[in-house]
Amino acid sequence: MNRQLRQLVLLTCVTATAVVGSGSAFAGYGPMNGESGKECFEQQKHEGRRGMFMKMAKELELSDQQKSEARAIFEAGRAKNAPLFASLRQERHELQTMVRSGSADESAIRAQAAKVAALQADVAVQRGAQTRQFLALLTPEQATKFKALREARHDARGHHPHHDR
């Protein structure tokens, strides 16, 4: 496997981990009160989003109207993007299967990686649109604070800011 292909596969795997891996934050919790594991995970995932939303709303001092509008934006985004994320998971799985098989040729792997990359681009576009919608409902002060909080969280995860900012 040539170097570029290895880098592409590695980038795809890292991105997959970043996008899908957030669910692992709840891996230590098991089902309760007769719930199945999936029901338990879905409830914890929802509570996690709610908790993050409430923390953000408090930090930004959102009004009740802003909270309501923001919830609507985020819920609509989740509903709209669910099929996109399902497709992305499926295409990533197919790519991983091809790579692990050892029998797929370079052109097949490249074609599958291109499908994954296109779906990742679609996800990025959708997230960008959702962020624009959210920023539009904030006051200029709140928008500035939101961007600063987002950068601080990004940096806290070990990412380094770009030098050209």
UniProtKB/TrEMBL annotation:
Keyword Nucleus annotated: no
Chief localisation class: periplasm
Signal peptide (UniProt feature, chain positions): 1-27
Keywords tagged on the record: Periplasm, Signal
Location relative to the cell: Periplasm
A Pfam family hit: LTXXQ
Family the entry assigns: Belongs to the CpxP/Spy family.
The protein, known as: Spy/CpxP family protein refolding chaperone
